[in-house]
Amino acid sequence: MYVTLKKTVPVSAWYMLASALGFALMAACVKIANTTYSIPVLEIVAARAIVSAVISYADVRRKNISVWGNNKPLLMARGTVGALALIFVYYAITTLPLAEATILQYLHPVFTAILALVFLKEIIQRSTISCIVLSLLGLFIMIQPNLLNDNSTPYSWLSIGAAILGAFGSAVAYVIVKQLTKTEDSSVIVFYFPIIAIPISITLLGSDFVVPSLAATGVLVLVGIFTQVGQIGLTKALHSADANKATAYAYVQVLFSVLIGWAYFSEVPVLTTLMGGACILAGALINVFWKR
Q: Least CB-packed of 19, 32, 79, 273 within 10 Å?
């Protein structure tokens, strides 16, 4: 049965599933660091980048390759766009329920498919189109109650806008990563994110630095570790399939976030969240099992 499933599901899907779980756990740790230990968002970004830099550098040296890569301008662009997108995403995570923040951020596969079509000349396959349509329907159902223009909605447009900007920035970064996989090792691509994100986040943080407790430090380290799992899985997935095809599998992170939000943060999903999640899961399954 395992062999049959392995043959049915593409390698890129397994990488993306591991990436989705890593990013879901990362988001939970970000929320804990900010809401429980009052660590500023920019400090969390810096801490994540430092941990990622250490792990990435060790991985590059293990492979005995140059840490600076070949296409330095494009590598630096990937790091800059990724750092800015991460700031927006982390702000959304800390100001919105985990499930809603993840859902809004997961507009990025739609942006990725469009950008990959325009800049990489990739053809959007029918299975990916079906996945995107169902997923957008699910996203609309899930976020619609939070976007109503009345006094009952507890979420600000600033938080929602930050999540959408983070999604667009992530899509731009993913398309750049796809282009870079033609000339660069995946470890080098991952390494460039933290070395750009560290100076940006520290500069913007300024005097708002908070000395973390031992427990908070442990949570910040976990943010970096789970991020590395997500980044490596994502980079390898993009290396295994078209950008728009591989990122479509990442929708399952929404389900991981719903479960974590319910189990740890007592964020009980409403009916629209469950309905939208069902649409997103259906889209992901169609994308995976279309050929079968």
A: 32
What span, in angstroms and rounded, lies between the C-alpha atoms of 139 and 107? 8
Of 31-40, 96-105, 196-205, minimum mean pLDDT range: 96-105
CA neighbor of 104 nearest in space, from 53, 59, 163: 163
Pull the structure tokens for residue 60.
């590059």
CA geometry: angle at 64 spanning 223 and 57, to 5°? 20
Enter the pTM of the model: 0.81
Domain extent at residue 278: 2-289
Cα angle for residues 24, 30, 35 (degrees, 5° grid)? 130
pLDDT of residue 201: 95
pLDDT digits (tens, 9 = 90+) for 141-159: 877 766 665 555 567 778 8
Could you give the angle at the alpha carbon of 84 between the alpha carbons of 82 and 86, nearest 5°?
A: 65
Rg, the chain, Cα only = 18
Largest Cα–Cα separation, the chain: 58
Q: How many domains does the structure of the chain reveal? A: 1
Place of tokens 């900010």: 34
237: phi then psi, degrees, rounded to nearest 5: -65, -45
